[in-house]
Design brief:
Layout: H1 3-7, H2 9-16, H3 22-31, H4 38-48, H5 58-74, H6 79-91
Length: about 90
């Protein structure tokens, strides 16, 4: 009875932490038993590794604003649309 929670420990941790790859971790945990328990170890390590979101670089934001300005100058988008999109890009 004690070994059952231990066997699913990576699954429990991934679900509690709302890991973005929790389904994959669950599958590796459950199906990894077929590989003499190697899947359990992989799933345990994976449940603690959370991918880091990379923020867009300043140059990419500046490039986007420059493209929007060009579209505004050509009359493709209005001033209000330009300002709204610029504010959205500046928040990110």
């Amino acid at each position: 009875m004690i070994f059952l929670p231990l066997a699913f420990l990576p699954t429990i941790i991934a679900i509690r932490k709302s890991h973005p790859y929790k389904i994959a971790i669950i599958l590796v945990n459950v199906l990894g038993r077929l590989l003499w328990g190697v899947g359990w170890l992989i799933a345990l390590i994976w449940c603690f590794i959370v991918p880091v979101k990379q923020a867009p670089s300043f140059s990419s934001v500046a490039d986007e604003i420059e493209k929007l300005h060009s579209l505004k100058e050509k009359g493709v988008i209005s001033d209000a649309e330009f300002e709204a999109k610029k504010k959205e890009l500046m928040r990110v």
